[in-house]
């Protein structure tokens, strides 16, 4: 019985570290480190993905290198102009991960992302 308990404990600890590492990676991929609704520090497991439409592969490449630089160019979700050069979006798109402090803020954002997308600030912004 002791061996079974020890094996269970080892598996549980390993699984916990795996979940924490995954959550940290998800938060690290987010474009922001403060909640766009409350301004609090974000939680690792509270994120939403936003699809951003772009006008060309060249704009997609620029956007993917530094999406935070183009946050102000996203007018709404789905966007009606390319955040890089302002042209009408075509067949290129990218995914922007936005993080939140809690499930309530995530739910509010998910219900109407157009209302809050302009409030997302890049990591390190005040």
Secondary structure: elements and pairs:
Elements: H1 2-29, E1 47-54, H2 57-65, E2 92-99, H3 103-111, H4 113-116
Antiparallel strand pairs: 1-2
Class from secondary-structure proportions: alpha+beta
How would you sum up the major sheet? 2 strands, antiparallel
- CA radius of gyration: 18 Å
SSE order, as H and E?
HEHEHH
Question: What is the overall number of helices?
Answer: 4
* Spatial order of strands in the largest sheet: 1-2
What is the compact description of this entry?
With 126 residues, the chain is α+β, with helices and mostly antiparallel strands. It is built from four helices and two strands; from the N terminus they run H-E-H-E-H-H.
Describe this structure in words.
Helices cover 40% and strands 13% of the residues. The chain is an alpha+beta fold and 126 residues long. The protein has one domain. A two-stranded antiparallel sheet has the order 1-2. It is globular, with a radius of gyration of 18 Å. The termini are far apart.
Name its key features.
alpha+beta, globular, 4 helices, two-stranded antiparallel sheet, 13% strand, 126 residues, 2 strands
């Amino acid at each position: 019985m002791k061996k079974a308990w020890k094996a269970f404990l080892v598996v549980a600890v390993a699984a916990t570290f795996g979940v924490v590492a995954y959550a940290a990676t998800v938060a690290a991929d987010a474009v922001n480190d403060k909640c766009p609704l409350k301004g609090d520090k974000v939680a690792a497991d509270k994120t939403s993905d936003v699809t951003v439409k772009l006008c060309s592969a060249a704009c997609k490449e620029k956007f993917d290198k530094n999406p935070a630089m183009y946050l102000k160019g996203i007018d709404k979700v789905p966007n009606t102009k390319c955040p890089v050069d302002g042209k009408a979006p075509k067949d290129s798109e990218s995914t922007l991960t936005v993080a939140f402090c809690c499930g309530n803020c995530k739910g509010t954002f998910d219900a109407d992302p157009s209302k809050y997308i302009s409030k997302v600030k890049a990591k390190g912004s005040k």
